[in-house]
Amino acid sequence: QYDVLIVGAGHGGAQAAIALRQNNFEGSIALLGDEPEAPYERPPLSKEYFSGERSFERILIRPLAFWAERDIDLLLERRVIAVDPVEHLVTLGDGSTIGYGSLVWATGGAPRTLTCSGHDLKGVHSVRTRADVDRMLAETRTARDIIVIGGGYIGLEAAAVLTKMGKHVTVLEAMNRVLARVAAEPLSRFYEAEHRAQGVDIRLSARVDCINESDGWVSGVRMHDGSILPADMVIVGIGIIPAVEPLIVAGATGGNGIDVDIFCQTSLPDVYAIGDCAMHPNPFADGAPIRLESVQNANDQATVVAKAINGEAVPYQAVPWFWSNQYDLRLQTVGLSLGYDNIVQRGDPATRSFSIIYLKSGRVIALDCVNATKDYVQGKALVVNRRSPDLHQLADLGISLKTLVA
Ligand code: FAD
């Protein structure tokens, strides 16, 4: 029995435990997760950890000793398979049960897999856990032709690392541009051109038929037009499915994520959900329910839950932000571009330093800044204060965004 049981020892779960202790919560806390490692940062899995620039120890969210020092029980390699909201109990994979006062559901999501034949062959990978990446790294030593399915952030980051390793990389994107779900066309075209210049074979509107095998291993990808692209390794980066089944079965409202209110409370008593698995009303989406997959969202929702459990409820209002590193390009985004009806380009992509500013009904709702940290920092206030600056001034590099906030 724990006063607070946190299920999922990733970004949100770890931060919830940290924030509870920072708020002087004195009750018992368990942080339970199904991976073998203490909580670690996930973004480096497709960036610095994958490239070898950062060791595993350097991506731990806190040093190993931290958890015991803060009297937080780390229960690793355990999976919750059922929740009893009436008895306030969870059941683990081995049949044992743990009672809770408050339950924090911070389970993230499982990588979406292909459904075509060959999707489960050896040499086909997703990128979600340290174990996934270690398996990939072991194979990259001998792999030469690598196919990345999905031109989202994770797929493109992996492609950048692998290209730098000297691999022959092909990216297959089903839409007619990369980053189509998250960015405006000029940004997509910029990244497409950058990857091509680095030698990545980017194929748009690509339709995968199946994965071919040879002796139980992947040997290539067959496309809808019958052509076959040879591959020693395939990386699938096509999104996640929120890991919410036990809570839904227990009666929580939701589907694509667990529905929560502005305090991250679910429809079940004393049960909260945070991070990638939480469908929450976001003020930067005009209060519409959305799921966000970002470290910012997981951490800030964890803080909201820690306060709510401590009896000091404050609503979730944090400004969304995100980043992506590819080659020497640092993309920083702030706000949510959902539903934009206009964009302004600030700076010339040819200089490899520029920003795309998203507007809705004349108001700034988001910025994507490439090697333009000053715009990112100063543009945040435009988003927060929902400013409607003159569009020519927004585009004018001679005018700092700071001056447009007033
Ligand atoms: P997670 O960190 O995924 O933690 C959930 C944990 O719960 C996992 O360990 C999972 O195995 C475990 N779990 C699931 N079900 C159960 C169960 N039933 N019982 C016990 N344990 C369970 N975000 C950014 O902001 N910037 C980036 O650059 C960025 N890059 C990324 C790169 C990669 C390769 C990946 C995979 C993600 C990236 N993200 C990035 C997204 C970011 O990592 C996630 O948004 C964040 O990890 C969400 O935190 P979370 O706590 O919701 O879930």
Automatic annotation (TrEMBL):
Its cofactor is FAD. Its EC number is 1.18.1.3. The lineage of its organism: Bacteria, Pseudomonadati, Pseudomonadota, Alphaproteobacteria, Sphingomonadales. Pfam families: Pyr_redox_2 (PF07992), Reductase_C (PF14759). This is 3-phenylpropionate/trans-cinnamate dioxygenase ferredoxin reductase subunit. GO terms for molecular function: dioxygenase activity; ferredoxin-NAD+ reductase activity; oxidoreductase activity, acting on NAD(P)H. One of its GO terms (cellular component) is cytoplasm. It is an enzyme of class 1 (oxidoreductase). Residues 2-302 form the FAD/NAD(P)-binding domain. It comes from Sphingobium boeckii. Keywords: Dioxygenase, FAD, Flavoprotein, Oxidoreductase. Residues 321-404 form the Reductase C-terminal domain. InterPro entries: FAD-oxidoreductase/Apoptosis, FAD/NAD-bd_sf, FAD/NAD-binding_dom, FAD/NAD-linked_Rdtase_dimer_sf, Reductase_C.
